[in-house]
Amino acid sequence: MQLKLRKPDDWHVHLRDGDALATTVPDCAQSFARAIVMPNLKPPVASLDAARAYRDRILAAVPEGMAFEPLMTLYLTPDLAIEAVREGKASGLIQGVKLYPQGATTNSEAGVASLEGVMPVLEAMAEVGLPLLVHGEVTDRDIDIFDREAIFLERTLGPLMNRLPQLRVILEHITTADSVNFVKAHPSMGATITAHHLIYSRNDMLAGGIRPHLYCLPILKRASHRGALIEAATSGDPQFFLGTDSAPHAIGDKESDCGCAGCYTAPHALSLYASVFDRAGRLDQFEAFASLNGARFYGLPVNTQTVTLIKQPMLIPETRPLGSQQVRLLGAGETLDWSLA
Ligand code: NCD
Ligand code: ZN
After folding, report:
1. How far apart are CA 298 and CA 161, in angstroms?
2. For the segment 77-117, what is each residue's pLDDT rounded down to a tens digit?
3. Ligand nearest to the backbone CA of 264
4. What pLDDT, on a 0 to 100 scale, did the predictor assign at position 264?
5. In a domain, 328, yes or no
6. DSSP assignment of 218-238
7. 332 lies in a domain?
8. How far apart are CA 164 and CA 297, in angstroms?
9. Distance 104 CA to ligand 1 centre (A)
10. What is the span of the domain harbouring residue 110?
11. Burial class (CB in 10 A: 0-12, 13-18, 19+), 123
12. CATH number at residue 166
């Protein structure tokens, strides 16, 4: 059995920088024609010059004969200039601005503590039609980590959407039924869904032993939320689209006393997603989720290239190089039903 579809795009990926690009870029480009590249480098990609230079470093890592278009984002800091928003949009260099609540995740220290100070920038984005990409979690230490996404909707995103209903917002890597319902209730919104949140729930991470390679942010939730995500992703609803949030960390940084958050899925992402759609009996909706809905939301043309998936067992390799270190693949050593032809 074969599945031929327009080449997908990854609407949320971490390619990192430096010598890591030698593998993260080909791993992504093999399956995806374009990718929205996250700006949480150290220091963050917070200016047009930084975005242009990062884009050039990514393009330099695209293997000969492969086509890949990195779609750049700006990191929203309290200092981001309105001019950068206008120029970034007008020049076509910037496809979105990423909001990290300060302290929410990897390299978010430079993020935003309160939206009040960045309202003029958000207003300019609404005016020129540049989407806001949101890491949707509150960071208060007294809020339970499993509730941080739902409370963010209530306290932060709901009020923002009321204040700026014309702002186009993508709620990234959603993990709860609350977020599915919230996005559906706001027509100017979209949401990305990762493969790992479609495949695993928190029991997989914590019952019978702690599995650091399943630790990501937002953290895996209970199984009923996973069910809501599968339903949203496979429904064909154009508000939901593929974003791997592939986020490599070296093995030692994950298997540690204070392990980093992030799962590496880029090399086998399409096989992971296809297996989910197959098990749900919705392979007919896979192309919409992977190759059509995101492009439509971003106002970009759909890809003309195609990829073919074959229903043939694929053993997930254990590791990949990450610069001078190694990263462990999500689901290492397990077998998937679908392979990339
Ligand atoms: C991401 C990373 O490592 O950059 N980690 C993660 O768990 N998803 C950051 C992010 O998207 O939250
Ligand atoms: Zn991410």
Report:
1. 18
2. 999 999 999 999 999 999 999 999 999 999 999 999 999 99
3. 1
4. 98
5. no
6. SPP--HHHHHHHHHHHHT--T
7. no
8. 18
9. 9
10. 8-303
11. middle
12. 3.20.20.140
